């Protein structure tokens, strides 16, 4: 019986969750600060508690890409 409840309570992994879990070197709090949004809101987006608009999700992804571009420019 508990197994059934556990399966029902499991949330679907969000796109942002998959990005951050597959790249543990990313710091969600630092990305949020860089974007000027609260760290708790970013956590809610990643966990699926809140769903970002398409524009906000694109902004988060583009911010992460910008960080990657900046890292590749280090000599």
From TrEMBL:
GO MF annotation list = DNA binding
Which protein is depicted? HTH cro/C1-type domain-containing protein
Q: What is the lineage of its organism?
A: Bacteria, Pseudomonadati, Bacteroidota, Bacteroidia, Bacteroidales
